[in-house]
Amino acid sequence: MSDVLDQITPDESTDAPKPAETAHWRREDRGGRITLWLDCEGTGTNVISEAVLRELDTLLDEAKQAQPDVLVIRSAKPGGFAAGADIDGFADLRGEGAVEMLKQGHAVLDKLAALPFPTVAVVHGATLGGGFELALACDHRIGVDGVKLGFPEIQLGLHPGLGGTFRLTRLIDPVAAMQMMLTGKSAHDRKAKKLGILDALVPERHVDAAIDAAAKGKLTHDNGGFKATALRTRAARSLAANRMRSESEKQAPRAHFPAPFALIDLWQDHGGDPQRMQSAEIASFAELLDSTTAQNLIRVFFLRRRLKSGAGEDDGIAHVHVIGAGAMGAEIAAWSAMQGKRVTIEDVKLAPLGDTIRRAAKIYEKKHLSGIDARDALDRLMPDPDGLGRARADLVIEAAPEKAELKESIYAELTNVMKPGAILATNTSSLRLADLVDAAPDPALFAGQHFFNPVSSMPLVEVVSHDLASDATLDRLAAFTAGIDRLPARVADYPGFLVNRVLAPYMMEAMVMLDEGHDKVAIDRAALAFGMPMGPVSLADQVGLDICLEVAGSLNAGLDVPVAETPEWLVKKVEAGETGKKAGKGLYDYGSEKPPKEPADRPDPAIIDRLILPMCNAAVECLRKGVVADAETADAAVIFGTGFAPFRGGPLHYAKVRGDVQEVLARLEKQHGPRFAPDPGWGDFG
Ligand code: NAD
Fold first, then answer.
1. Domain 2-290 class, CATH top level
2. Each residue's pLDDT tens digit, 81-122
3. What's the predicted TM-score (pTM) here?
4. Is 462 a catalytic residue?
5. What architecture (CATH level 2) is domain 499-683?
6. Contact 453/463 with Cβ under 8 angstroms?
C-alpha cells in the first residue's frame, strides 16, 4: 500500500492553501474526494498518539474549508488500520493532565464527527482501541476482508477513553457493544458487519466503489434496532447492567479489577445521553488510569514489548524440522508454519503426523486465518515420516518424550546429518541441558527452546542456555521465537528452568494442603481470588498428576531447598491411573465434578500466602542464581508462562509492593517447615 502512496502526487492545480506539513498523515485529493492516509512515522504499525490527533485536527480544518464530496480516512500500513492508542503517551499521565489530554483528543474526534459532508473510515487488519474510536467518529465504516475491530483496553485495566463507550453503544445493540468492551474480544470481518459496526465489507478491489456508494448516501446501517431504543431508558439499562455486573464479578472482584464495573456504571447512568456519557467517560478513564491495577497492567504491556524487542531480528531460520509429533511437536510445527516458516515434522508413528495436520487446521480456524492463508500455512507444513528434513533444516526442534536416553539416541542420529550451522533445540521441560549436551552434534549449536502447552495460546518460550551454548545460537533462537510471534525469555539451565521452578510450589503446596484436610474447592477459589487464572488443584489435574510427580521429583533432586514433599496418596492415585483431566479423574472427578471458576468472596489469606509466597521466593532464588538476568524479565516470564495474576505485576513486583513477604515466609517456615525458608537473595532484592 505504501507503494501506491509513493506514486500519488498531490493535486497542486488549485489556489487552495498549501496542505499542512504532517509527519503521520498524508493527504490525497482526487476529484471531490479527500483521503487522509494515516502513516505513522518511523514505525510499521499505526498508533493514535497526541501528535497524530494534533495533525488530524489541522487536516480536518483544511478539509472543512475544501468542502469535498467525501472525506476518507485510511491507513497506509499494510498490517492494519491502527493498533490502538499510544500507551507510551499516556502511561505516566495522572489526574488533571490525563483529563486535559483526553479532552483535546475528544475535541478532534468531535470535529470529525461534525463535518458537514460524508466521512468514511476504510479499515483493514487490526483496528483496535483508539484506532477503532477514530473509525467510529466517521459517518461510515467500510471494512476490507480480514479486518478485526475491538477494544482491548480492559486488558490494561481501562475502558475505551476516546469516545468508544458512547459511540459504539449508540451505533449497535448496546448490550453487544458492552460485551465487546467488557471482554476485550474483537469482532472479525463478517461478525463486525453483522453487528452493524461495518456498513460494508468488501475485498480491497471494491473499496473505491464502496466509498462512492457511501458518498452518495447509499450505505446505511440500522443503529442497533429496537434493543438500542429500548435501552435508552435507565430502568431498562439497570436490569442489563446488573446482569453484566454479576458476570464481571465472576471473573474478578471489583476491588482488583475496577474497569468493567466503571464501564457498566458509566453506561447505566448515562447510556441515554451521549454528551453526559462523553464527559463521564473522560473522568472515569482518568480515574482508572490512576488505579494500581491499570498501572500494573500497563507495566505488563511494557514487559511484553521488552521481551519481544530484546530479541534480534535475523534468525537465519527459514526451515524448521520438528522431531516428535505429540502434544507439543504438533503445535510447534503448526504454529511455526502459520508464522511463515517452512516446516517438516517426523515421528516414529504415522498417526501423529495425520493428527498434526488436523490440529493445524483447527488452530488456523481458531485464529481466524482466511481460507487462502490457512491453505498456504498447510502447504508449508509437511509430514516427513522419513526424516528428510533433518539434513535441510536451519533449526531442528526435538519434542520427543521426556526420556534422556531416547533424546540422546535421537541426537546421535543427527550427528553428521544436520547441515552446517543448523541449530538443535530441545523442548525438554525437566531434563538438564548439561546432561544432554554431550550427545548433541555440536554443543555450541545446541540449546533449549521450551514452549508451553498449548503453544497457540501460551505466548512464552524459554530460551535455555548452558555452559557450552554459543551466544549466536541463543540470539538466533530468541529472534526465531519473536519472529513466530512468541515471547522469548532467556533463562539458564536450572531445575525447572525459571517458569516451572516458580510454578511447581504453587501446585505442590496445594497437595500438602489437601493432605492436611483443606477443601480442594476452597483452595482453588482462594487462588482465583488472588487473580490466578486457574486454582492449583485444577491446574495439577490439567497438567497431569503423573507429570506433576515427575517435575516435583526432578526439582527436588536438583534444588538446594526442596519443594513440598509429595503425599503418598498422590503417588497411589497416579499408579491407579487417576492422572487428572486427561484420564477423566484426578483430584476432581470429571464425570461428576467441575473445577470452580469463580473466585472466593472471602478467601482465606493464609491459603493465599502459602500458595503465592513460595512462588515469590522461588523467583528471588532464580534471580540470585542468575537463572534470569533481571527482575523485570522474571516477572514477565512468570506472567506470560503461567498467567500469574497480571494485575499484580508479577511475583517480584507483588513482593516489592507488599513489602512483608520475607517476614511472612519466615513465619511460615516456623509453622510448616524449611520449604518456606526465605531465600538468601531477599537481602539483595530488597
Ligand atoms: P508426547 O508423548 O505427546 O509426544 C511425543 C511424540 O514423540 C509421540 O508422538 C511419539 O510417537 C514421538 N516419538 C517417540 N520417539 C520418537 C523418536 N525416536 N523420533 C521421533 N518421534 C518420536 O509428548 P509431549 O507432551 O509432546 O512432550 C514432548 C516434549 O516436550 C517433552 O520433552 C516434554 O517434556 C516437553 N514439554 C511438554 C509439555 C506438555 O505440557 N506436554 C510442555 C512443555 C514441554
1. alpha beta
2. 999 999 998 888 888 889 999 999 999 999 999 999 999 999
3. 0.87
4. yes
5. Orthogonal Bundle (1.10)
6. no
